[in-house]
């Protein structure tokens, strides 16, 4: 790991990667494999880890089986459970960073303030809190799940107790015997609420929208199974293929609300069998088709909500007066601690506020709430800038499916540029519009758009800027090779020197 020096002059590298999660680490590994070594990776925190460094709440674990939630080229036979816990996933990432000798390329404690394309220097100018860097190419691998959404609730800043977001868990606070209110019932809440319910005095859950919950097939993986995966790796590859097939089937079903209504019967059975209290059961019954929101899995969520010290208020929190919390339906409760399980900025990537195109406009200003790009990877007027988890590449499967679809495309683009003396690559505006019109047309009949809910797949303008409407096979096929004919290309002038900012 290289120490950053605030007093350094601007430092040039061929490529700058922004973000030290699985996407950024994967980009670094694939660049090295392609024989490209002049790159650095900028990470704002003190260690690598991405979302698995940020989220340390009790019960934090993957909701995709670990056999699929890992690099295909780096299976891990040592997972302790079918769905790996947070600490194991973070260790997996950091171990791989060391195995592939990526840390010498990494600048920790280096937060990107802005990344600006300069037509004058034909480089990205990247300002950080540790000085300035310049690069011909940038790979923005920041991920969508690291900037928490903080609700705008009247009086919440005057709350007389303690308040924190689930992704910034206060491990110094003892919840034992406290009156705790949780705002939100999404993926994080269904994991930590069953963990804290037995120790708190009173738990009040503010549920704006009920969620469909599937049973979770989570079991321990004993040593003999781990040994089998280690010494017969084909067995783990076969398991990965089977899990991928299940998720691909679900992903295909999401294109049909009618199909998802049939799949929903499993979640309805789970609810009916687990919650005996009829009044509570109706509170917890969603009014939209499963898949419209992120599909959640848990075996202990419903049992936790059925306990005597838990109250579910089927209404959003509207106002806070001292330690009194008032819901939109008029319900009131008192709390010592508020935990915000209000999710992350998904439809509007936080990095968009910090990336500026050749005209000096931020991505966020150009998008106006509705992100749009080309093949989810490049954006108009941002030459040589590649975006991981860009617009309309999200699938209901493992994030690694997206990462390993995008990385060959990005690395192929950079390798072709180096081999052919190309100075800049940017998407052709003539192709961007029809590409996005085709995606939006395909999304119109999916459960995300027609399932009857408001989810993070839909942006503030009501447009689905997030989901990929087809199979992941088609996504991987589309990104298999970077076709220069679809882009605007400028070649390096003959005998010219590369301009490097000083």
From TrEMBL:
SUPFAM superfamilies referenced in this protein's UniProt entry, alphabetically: FAD/NAD(P)-binding domain
InterPro entries associated with the record: FAD-bind_Monooxygenase_sf, FAD/NAD-bd_sf
Residues making up the signal peptide according to the UniProt record: none
Superkingdom of origin organism: Bacteria
Pfam family, one: Pyr_redox_3
Name the UniProt record assigns to this protein: FAD/NAD(P)-binding domain-containing protein
């Amino acid at each position: 790991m290289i120490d950053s020096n605030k007093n350094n002059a601007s430092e040039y590298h061929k490529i700058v990667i922004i973000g030290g999660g699985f996407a950024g680490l994967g980009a670094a590994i694939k660049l090295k494999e392609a024989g490209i070594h002049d790159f650095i990776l900028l990470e704002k925190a003190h260690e690598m880890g991405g979302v698995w460094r940020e989220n340390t709440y009790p019960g934090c674990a993957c909701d995709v089986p670990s056999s699929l939630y890992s690099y295909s080229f780096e299976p891990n036979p040592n997972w302790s459970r079918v769905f790996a816990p947070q600490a194991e996933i973070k260790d997996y990432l950091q171990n791989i960073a060391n195995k592939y000798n990526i840390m010498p390329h990494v600048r920790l404690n280096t937060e990107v303030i802005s990344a600006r394309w300069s037509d004058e220097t034909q480089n990205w100018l990247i300002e950080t809190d540790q000085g300035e860097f310049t690069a011909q190419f940038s790979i923005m691998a920041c991920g969508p799940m690291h900037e928490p959404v903080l609700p705008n609730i009247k009086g919440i800043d005057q709350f007389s107790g303690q308040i924190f977001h689930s992704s910034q868990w206060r491990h110094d606070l003892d919840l034992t015997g406290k009156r705790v209110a949780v705002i939100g019932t999404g993926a994080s809440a269904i994991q930590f609420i069953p963990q804290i319910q037995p120790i708190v005095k009173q738990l009040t859950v503010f549920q704006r929208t009920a969620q469909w919950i599937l049973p979770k097939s989570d079991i321990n993986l004993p040593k003999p199974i781990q040994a089998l995966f280690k010494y017969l790796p084909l067995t783990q590859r076969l398991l990965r293929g089977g899990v991928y097939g299940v998720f691909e089937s679900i992903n295909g079903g999401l294109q049909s609300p009618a199909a998802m209504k049939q799949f929903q019967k499993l979640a309805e059975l789970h609810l009916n069998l687990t919650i005996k209290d009829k009044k509570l059961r109706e509170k917890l019954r969603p009014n939209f088709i499963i898949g419209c929101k992120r599909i959640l899995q848990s075996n202990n969520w419903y049992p936790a909500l059925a306990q005597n010290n838990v109250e579910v208020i089927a209404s959003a929190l509207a106002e806070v007066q001292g330690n009194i919390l008032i819901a939109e339906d008029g319900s009131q409760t008192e709390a010592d601690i508020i935990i915000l399980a209000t999710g992350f900025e998904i439809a509007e990537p936080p990095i968009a506020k910090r990336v500026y195109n050749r005209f000096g406009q931020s991505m966020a200003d150009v998008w106006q709430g509705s992100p749009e790009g080309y093949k989810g990877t490049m954006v108009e007027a941002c030459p040589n800038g590649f975006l991981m988890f860009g617009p309309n590449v999200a699938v209901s499967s493992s994030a690694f499916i997206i990462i390993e679809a995008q990385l060959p495309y990005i690395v192929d683009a950079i390798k072709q540029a180096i081999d052919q003396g190309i100075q800049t690559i940017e998407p052709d505006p003539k192709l961007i519009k029809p590409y996005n019109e085709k995606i939006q047309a395909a999304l119109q009949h999916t459960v995300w758009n027609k399932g009857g809910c408001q989810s993070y797949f839909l942006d503030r303008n009501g447009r689905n800027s997030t989901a990929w409407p087809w199979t992941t096979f088609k996504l991987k096929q589309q990104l298999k090779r970077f076709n220069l004919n679809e882009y605007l290309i400028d070649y390096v002038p003959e005998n010219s020197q590369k301009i490097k900012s000083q």
